[in-house]
Specification:
2 domains; 195 residues; disordered N terminus; alpha+beta; five-stranded mixed barrel
């Protein structure tokens, strides 16, 4: 008798889903792609509804349309299996990135040996978690501060330009978006530092 199980194989940080296949089980099949170091590769995925809910929650940018589409298809299921074609409906596959996927490869037991038969083209998504924030270099915060100071300095230059055009002080500050006294003071000091 042949038995099927899974073995932990890898993790990844992005997949795309073109179609979702539903049936009467508690599992879903995704037709899509997996992103590896050398680019996107065709791959199918199997998972359960709990993992899908976590994917939708952690993705951050995915709206409720996917979840509502699945619910609607489950309620109106006439054909088994039922296919939800996300790519046709949206014009492109749905990409789930910034998520850490824990993947397992299906294996088949034959003659007492476990054989991996999918050759990396099918994975079971065992669980997902939010991807850890990317490590920021020490220079990035300073670059952001320098950009903010440059923008504040430009706002003060704009204010001075309106004064030269004979705008009243209050009108010049409003046009330069410097009506807040603290922002006006910071803009002045940023401008002074640049000159």
């Amino acid at each position: 008798m042949n038995k099927v199980n899974t073995a932990t194989a890898t993790t990844c940080e992005a997949i795309s889903i073109s179609q979702i296949i539903l049936d009467e089980s508690n599992y879903l099949t995704f037709w899509g792609n997996i992103r590896k170091e050398d680019g996107w590769h065709r791959c199918d995925f199997i998972t359960n509804y709990d993992v899908l809910n976590d994917m939708l929650r952690y993705s951050g940018h995915q709206d409720d349309n996917i979840q509502m589409s699945i619910v609607q298809h489950l309620e109106d299921m006439r054909n088994i299996p039922e296919v939800i074609d996300l790519e046709a409906g949206r014009g492109e596959a749905v990409v789930f990135d910034n998520i850490s996927f824990q993947l397992s490869r299906p294996r088949l037991q034959q003659h007492g040996k476990w054989i991996e038969y999918t050759e990396g083209e099918c994975y079971y998504i065992t669980r997902v978690a939010p991807a850890p924030p990317a490590a920021r270099s020490a220079a990035e915060p300073q670059q952001e501060i320098d950009q903010c100071l440059a923008l504040l300095g430009k706002s003060y230059e704009l204010y001075l330009g309106y004064l030269e055009l004979d705008f009243e002080d209050a009108a010049a500050r409003q046009e330069a978006n410097l009506t807040d006294d603290l922002k006006y003071t910071m803009a002045y000091h940023a401008w002074k530092q640049q000159h």
